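Researcher: Next entry in the queue.
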Amino acid sequence: MLTIWKFEIPGAGAVTIGMPRGAMLLDVQVQGEQAQLWALVDSEAETVRRRFLVIGTGHAVHLDHCDPESFRRKYVGTFLSPDGRWVFHLFDCGEAY
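Model: Structure for this entry, 97 residues:
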């Protein structure tokens, strides 16, 4: 069944989140005190590890976790830290097999 799920973004840098295979990423925002990612998922699909990069404005981009070509095509969104002092950018590095 297609459902919209919310996933916590645990921090900056290389991040891996378990989510159903083929999830369609919708938006990233801060809710309360935590960055969250919303995705349209098939709730019956197998869970896979999906890799992301969370990069702060002005910080170096390290692509050890992400293929450089896919990184350039997979911008998800920009969000502020809960206190509004920091700006972060989320990139999708794809499913890990």
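Model: The longest strand covers residues 47-56.
Researcher: Noted, moving on.
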